[in-house]
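Re: beginner question about structure tokens

> Can someone show what the tokenized structure looks like for a real chain? I only ever see the sequence side.

Sure, here's an example I had lying around. Input first:
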Amino acid sequence: DGTEVAGQRESSTPPTQALFFLNNALVVAQARALAEHLLEGAEASDEERVTTAYHRALQRDPH
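And the corresponding structure tokens:
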């Protein structure tokens, strides 16, 4: 029933949504831009890059 409140929704990713994220030019361009940004800091450790990626993409720490 769509009128009931649910504390947590079941997660689902339909095939069309997955294909959108794999093939969409905007998504690919944004992923490339993030990767280029992360690789600019050659002296950064992998851990620092992961933390930076989380901050840029999700606005939170990876922990």
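Each token stands for a local structural state, so reading them left to right follows the chain. The chain has a mean pLDDT of 86.
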